[in-house]
Design brief:
8 helices; 2 domains; elongated; RiboL-PSP-HEPN domain-containing protein; transmembrane helix; membrane; transmembrane; mainly alpha
Length: 218
Amino acid sequence: MNMKRNSGGIGIFEIILAALALIVLAIFLFKNVGFFIDIKNFFTGGVDYGAVGNVVKFILTILTIFFLTIIAYCAVRLLEIRKKEHEHLAREIAEYAHKQSETERKKQEGGGVSDNSRWIKVLEHTFSQNPADWKLAIIESDSMLLDLMEQMGFKGENLGEKLKNADQESFPSLTRAWEVHTIRNRIAHEGLAFEVSNFEAKRVVAIYEQIFREYGYI
């Protein structure tokens, strides 16, 4: 069921649901005008236990209508959310399948895909359905960047120091390398508190790939 929304962000279903609730409430009130008379007599006259019972039934009926409306609304919203989740999962599966088929095709053609086993593992993590793997893809890519800079002869005990000892002339990819290395450090230092979406993981890995291909590393 396609739930379109107007410019104010209110869904058509919500409007219909509210209208039906108001109609039901109006019909109930019209048919039970005597309840209001009982309420008036209760406060202006002596205690009429029959009137008290009618008032209680009236209040319970109103509450029942209200909570049934809330339950119906929540049920429909839950169905909408599940539908969106299924659509998102289907897109992710299709994207992964497409990527795998492209990888296999390029392997058969003998070009386009690196035979670097570490990089292939990075791609597997990147297109995984597990969010933890997305972080692993970035961490492994950063480790590969460290290896690249060691091969290029940059000095330093770790990647951060090697980047500090580099400049744009000796390492033109320096700005991009700092960007992705900073994200890797946040993953390492903040742990679970630092969330990485699959889109962001793919973007970061793509930057690593650009750097690696520029220097023939993969």
